[in-house]
Amino acid sequence: MSAQHVPRKPEQPLIDSNDYLFLTALLRERSGLALGAGKEYLIESRLPAVAKAYGLRTLGELVRLLRDSPHDELEKAVCDAMTTGETLFFRDGAPFELLRAEILPALAERCRDERRALRIWSAAAATGQEPYSVAILIDQLASVLQGVRVELLATDFSTAAINRARRGAYSELEVQRGLTPELLATYFEMRDNTYTIANTLRRRVIFGEFNLLDSYAALGTFDVILCRNVLLYFDAPTKKDVMERMASILNPGGYFFLGSTETSFGVTDRLTRVSAAPTPVHIRTELMTSAG
Question: Same domain for 74 and 140?
Answer without folding.
Answer: no
